[in-house]
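Q: My collaborator sent me two sequences in one message, no labels, and asked for predicted structures for both. Can we handle them in order? The first one she listed is below.
A: Yes, handling them in the order given. First sequence, followed by its structure tokens:
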Amino acid sequence: MSEWISVEERLPENRIAQLVWVPERRNIYAAYFDKEVGDGYWRVFGSYGRAVEQEVTHWMPLPDPPQP
């Protein structure tokens, strides 16, 4: 199982779906980090690129899909 990674430690590869923790909302989202604009920002995956407006503090890779 993957561990949560602090955004202060490192950021993920550009535009690859991840799970992210948003403490202000106490929620986990599927999102990706977009490094193409300014210092970069998180976008909600599958939501037409809507930006995550609250601070993301941790991320982790998506789990592997189920095996048949």
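Q: And the one she listed second?
A: Here it is, processed independently of the first:
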Amino acid sequence: MADLQEAANQFIEDLIAQNMSGLMATFTPEGMSKAMAMGQGQQPQGGAPTRKEAVLLPADGDDHPVDLVLGNEEQEAIIGTVWREMGGAWKVNDIHVKKQP
């Protein structure tokens, strides 16, 4: 099993590449519902992100918050996620936009 940092980094790569099958496999049913309700949202301008970072925040019980930071020289977006270990794999149980580009 990948550790949380590795799983979050792969999630960012899948997000940038718009790898829907990779993203969908990472969500819990609750997380998927939240992602679908969130929609596509505003996309950063200026090409592919030059900064992509998964910032692990302090855990709260079984919930492991991770901020996904995507940006370039002009702007930055932060997506807040909450991960849970389920069946030997890390899954996104919650997702929301913390900062628009």
